[in-house]
User: What shape does this take?
Amino acid sequence: MEQAAPWLIVGLGNPGPQYAGNRHNVGFFIADLLAERTGVKFGRHRKAVADVAESRLGYGADAPRLVLVKPLTYMNLSGGPAAALSQFYKVPVEQIIAVHDELDIPYGQLRLKVGGGEGGHNGLRSMSKSLATKEYLRVRFGVGRPPGRQDPADFVLSDFSAVERKELEFLVDRAADAVEAIVKGGLAAAQQTYHTA
Assistant: This one.
């Protein structure tokens, strides 16, 4: 029996301690939580500039396989590792999920979709270019707009505020649930659950 292709879940962020708490790194937070939930640890992949953790969602031979990815290339080159790993694991584009911060959505809200524009997000732009398609899935974690006249680039490269951090753990948990919901039941069902709140 041929094994079903795994799901490639690409948490977008920047490597290095100076970026660890940034809004732009929320994709890493969610990937870390998914790894923790399934009891696996990240390690450097031999075929891509990325930390990778392989796991299953649930138990048994039929449980969907997950390949969790944190590119180590910096955000604007995230597509290279994503494309290399999609080829290595033979993942069809409809089983690739990018998990990322989103300025156009209020803080903490989630929006799930397939395809569409990149909204100025360098990680998505790089993924679309490297995968030669925009038709991958997105789990968009709202970080809201910067206050006043703060430059959006500075805003996403700053840490969550003290007020935001109070809820962050709960919101990251919910985003990880949304990723699992897509894998288990498909996009439409996940949208119904996570777009209502």
